[in-house]
Amino acid sequence: MKFNKWTLGLAAVGAxxxxxxxxxxxxxxxxxxxxxxxxxxxxxxxxxxxxxxVNHTSEGSQPPFSSTxxxxxxxxxxxAIDKPEDDTPWASGYHVDFQVGASxxxxxxxxxxxxAIRQAYVVLRTPVGNGIDWKFGAMxxxxxxxxxxxxxxxxxTRSVGWFEEPASLLGLVGSYTVNxxxxxxxxxxxxxxxxxxxxxxxxxxxxxxTAPDSWGWVKGATANVGxxxxxxxxxxxxxxxxxxxxxxVSALKxxxxxxxxxxxxxxxxxxxxVFFPNxxxxxxxxxxxxxxxxATDKLSVDLRGEYYDLQGxxxxxxxxxxxxxxxxxxxxxxxxxxxxxxxxxxxxxxxWDHSDTGTAFGNPGAPESTSTAQGNSFILALNLIYQx
Length: 388
Fold this sequence. Notes:
Elements: H1 5-12, H2 18-37, E1 41-53, E2 71-83, E3 92-100, H3 107-110, E4 117-126, E5 132-140, H4 160-164, E6 168-177, E7 182-192, E8 201-210, E9 222-230, E10 236-246, E11 252-263, E12 282-294, E13 299-310, E14 327-338, E15 344-355, E16 376-387
């Protein structure tokens, strides 16, 4: 470090020490660092579980949607660092999500697509109209009733519909609030889902509608429609519609979701290509219904029921351990949540999956003498999530 001659002269006669001069020289730099970090927050969660698969007892025969059958598991450790935008016209910020410690085979570890970094994006505002907020980088998908954050979903296990959708986006997405009722998102990104690869670009977009306070007991109801359109002629196209609705019973909310997926068959090289399925296209859909009853401040009961027709759906919408089965089937999930400890989500869940088109669960690919394939799957799970 260099000092001017006056500082060296004062140090020579003992008037100041070089250590204090160093601290004084570094003070502006420390001040700049403290200013930059003053609005930065750190949050996250630790997600652990114990799971019992009623009619599956070995790793090779675990049903879908599970972490580790008949055992304990660490599903996810998430650490998020945020610097949110302020209210200025040219505001900026960032968000980073680190995921560590997920158990091998966990749906939470394998479905996100970025390894240890779940999200990492810069947020920029441009003062156009009411202001456009841009996310540039890796981010969670913008469609779907359920998301990637453990504990934010009504149930412990993910829905069949969640597996149909892109888990993550890598690109540029803008969000614009037209008014208190309408918000629009649109952008260009690489999307991870099904046949989509990170070399494929996709157009993404969604519209969210929110009922105003003047609508009485319906206030706060939301409706969402969105799509992810892969620009590769063999890419996967996703279409989504969802609704969350309060009821006259203040503690009760209901919801519905519809997922539709199309993948052009790679063996057919004839047009039409982008956005329109060819005659050999693979298709599938999932219909989901949700109900949530907040009995007390700590106790809630959440129900989910789904019907799916994935007979034409491509791999990976099949029977491996972390994906929903192909064919036609249903699932019903009941979750009781009681938050006894501060900052802890504690849930007990029972899930039943049924296949209408065969023995989709267990280990259908095993030799007949050892196969545990069957048409039903039963899961009982205890889930604890500490949020900080």
